[in-house]
Amino acid sequence: MQTLDQTVVDAPTARPALPRRSPIATDALSRWRAPLSILALLALPFLLPSQALAVNVLIYGLYAVGYNLLYGYTGLLSFGHAAFFGTGAYVTGIAIGTYGLHPLAAMALAVVVASGLALALGALSIRSRGIYFAMVTLALAQLVYYVALQASSWTGGENGLRGFTVTTINLGIVSLDILNPLTKYLFVLAFVGAALALISRILASPFGAVIEAIRENETRARACGFDVERTKLLAFVLSGLFCGLAGALSAIHLSIVPLDSLAYHTSGTAVVMTLVGGAGTFFGPFVGALTVLVLEDVLSLWTPHWQLALGSVFILFVLFMPRGLWGTALARLTAFRGRA
Q1: In the chain, what are the helix, strand and coil shares in percent, each to the nearest 5?
Q2: How many H helices and E strands in the chain?
């Protein structure tokens, strides 16, 4: 198998190899991708028309990042990630509103429950492949949706979960005023930044190399001795963990949990944001979340049929920019550096 440092000459008259970035430069870019992403996200509240929109970009960007870990890096297309996002939101709201837990404790519980649900659903679905895997995840997510709909005494049923509002978060030394938009943004960014640092570490680990090997060629990865099923299950659980965290942050942000957070179109939102930004890229999901949410805001002001317009834009992205915005930008930058 070729390595990045090998030069392959197919003919005696082949041109000299183009200059490439040194491994040191590549390692540095990979090592600093999380801090650079956080620095870029710090500018959002000052660039977007509202800080509420900036918070939504953070939350749905984290949701898409969690989904991207499974789809972009492991190669498993899921249509059921709303189950983890909605579960994280519902558990947070119930823990705060019904049991009076501290918001941070409620969020921690939500992440644990979402991870446990991902373990259960993953164990049922990872043995299927391709479109069958996607359909199984969709069916299981719809089952979670139906359970939430029927458990109206806990979830509020069709009306969603209400009756909990987080105005301040006491951290002992300091108390955060969540009603302040900038304070709320920085609070959410702290969790998103921690999640990005953890994901970057995961991708840089041997486990990260294995899931990418599974994405490229599952048969060859299995022949190399890797436990493919167990690796895919762990990737599924980690993906559900980060999506559950995004759902918990959404509950803190909105102080309500609509039933739609478990609906199939919420799963589709993660797919769209990941593809628009660039599947298999680190920062791409945030670019996709920013693009989709801004387009949604703008198009909804122009026409009541904004979903049709947004769908048309998505089709154009798939046809003419299959790598997504961020993926295409990285590819062109690499090509430019190669010609330099």
Answers
A1: 75, 0, 25
A2: 16, 2
Q: Nearest Cα to 245, choosing from 285, 281, 194, 280?
A: 194
Mean pLDDT in order along the chain per 10 residues (340 residues): 40 39 47 91 92 96 97 96 98 95 97 98 92 96 96 94 91 90 95 96 95 94 94 97 98 96 95 95 96 92 86 87 90 70
How far is Cα 184 from Cα 180, in angstroms, rounded to an integer?
6
Q: Which amino acid is at 290?
A: L
CB 261 within 8 A of CB 89: yes
C-alpha 167, offset from chain centre = 26
Cα-based torsion angle of the residue sequence 106, 107, 113, 118 in order, rounded to the nearest 10 degrees: 170
Q: What is the DSSP string of 29-98?
A: HHHTHHHHHHHHHHTHHHHSS-HHHHHHHHHHHHHHHHHHHHHTTT----S-THHHHHHHHHHHHHHHHT
Beta bridge partners of 175: 170
User: CA–CA separation, 118 vs 84, rounded Å?
Assistant: 7
| Phi, psi (deg, nearest 5) at residue 330 | -65, -40
Q: Pick from 28, 92, 37, 27: which is nearest to 64 by CA? A: 37
CB 306 within 8 A of CB 300: yes
**Maximal C-alpha separation, the chain:** 76
Find out whether 326 and 283 touch, Cβ atoms under 8 Å. yes
Residue 73: count other Cβ atoms within 10 Å of its Cβ.
22
In angstroms, rounded to a whole number, what is the distance separating the alpha carbons of residues 114 and 99? Answer: 18
Question: Cβ-count burial of 77 within 10 angstroms (0-12 exposed, 13-18 middle, 19+ buried)?
Answer: middle
